[in-house]
Amino acid sequence: MKKFFALLLILVFSFTLLGANAAEKKKKVRKPKTKTKIEFEAKDGFLLVGDLYFSPQRKPPCPLVILLHSFGSKSSDWGNLGETLRLKNYNVLALDLRGHGKSVYTKNLRFKSRMNFEKEDWVKYPIDVVSSIDYIKKNYPQINTDEIYLVGADLGANSAVLAASIMKNKPKKMVLISPYVSFKNLDIALVVPKLTTVPMMVMASRADRYSYSQSDIIYRLIHSQKVLKLYDEGSSGNLLLKRNPSSYDEIAKYISGK
């Protein structure tokens, strides 16, 4: 009988140990987050929402790329660009611009779409970009906010240029997709020439004559290192990228330099 109880105790102990080992293995295989939804307040309290992709490499902290979509678009319209850049060891914020996507509520939770915007609303876009950087710097120390890249499409491109002009640490590079001389009171013709330390790539489609002519003007105003990518198909902004899938890789290569 004693032998029986001893054997029983050994079996119970063995199963307990196996269970503990299995639980430990589960803990070990738990993968770190690759993406999260963030919400934060702009300077005026407007609620901004975005998707934040985390680089697989955490140490040393990797740079940040901010994606600023077209007028009438949303953060998800960047397709797989966020994930592509993430796998190249960049952290990526795909932001829903004020009045777009899920960024449509004031601090009093009052719905406010871009359809109801006045001039004073549009000029807050560059400040929103800086607010997003401040938020990430405060809440995600594993992200290197001293090394930032801006990618913007039409409205987002103009916002990127004006944001760069007020950023303490200038962007390492910028990608401007279908930039305009002026878009929703965001005038950049006098600002672009002053960003002499920021390399820029301009992307445009010949199929959209007005957008192409505007992009050509902006390209000529750049006084830093510059690259021009032209396409025969597509419209402007994020629609240009969708019609030309290779453009996503062009952006990733330009930012990474390889």
From TrEMBL:
- Recorded source organism is Candidatus Galligastranaerophilus intestinavium
The organism that produces this protein has a lineage beginning with: Bacteria, Candidatus Galligastranaerophilus
Q: Where is the signal peptide?
A: 1-22
Give the PANTHER family listed for this entry.
Answer: DIENELACTONE HYDROLASE DOMAIN-CONTAINING PROTEIN-RELATED (PTHR22946), POLYKETIDE TRANSFERASE AF380 (PTHR22946:SF9)
Q: Which UniProt keywords apply?
A: Hydrolase, Signal
Show the Pfam families listed in the entry: Hydrolase_4
Q: Does the keyword Phosphoprotein apply?
A: no
Q: Name one GO molecular function term.
A: carboxylic ester hydrolase activity
- What name does the UniProt record give this protein? Alpha/beta fold hydrolase
Q: Which residues form the Serine aminopeptidase S33 domain?
A: 60-233
Specify whether Phosphoprotein is a keyword of the entry. Answer: no
